[in-house]
Amino acid sequence: MPARPISSATLSFGLVSVPIQLFSSSESKASISFNWLHKDCGSRLRQQYVCKQDDKVVERDDMVKGYEFAKNQYVVFTPDELKALDEQTKESIDITEFVPADQVDRIYVNKVYYLGPDKGGARAYRLLSAALRKTGLSAIARYSARGKQYLVLIRPEGEGLAMEQLYYSEEIRSFGEVALGDAEVKPEELKLAVQLIEQAASEAFAPQKYEDEVRKRVLAQIERKVEGKEITAAPEEEPQVQIIDLMDALKKSLAQGDTGTKKPAKAAKTKGSAPGRKAAGGGS
Question: Which of 100, 123, 170, 178 has its CA 20 to 30 A from that of 192?
Answer without folding.
Answer: 178
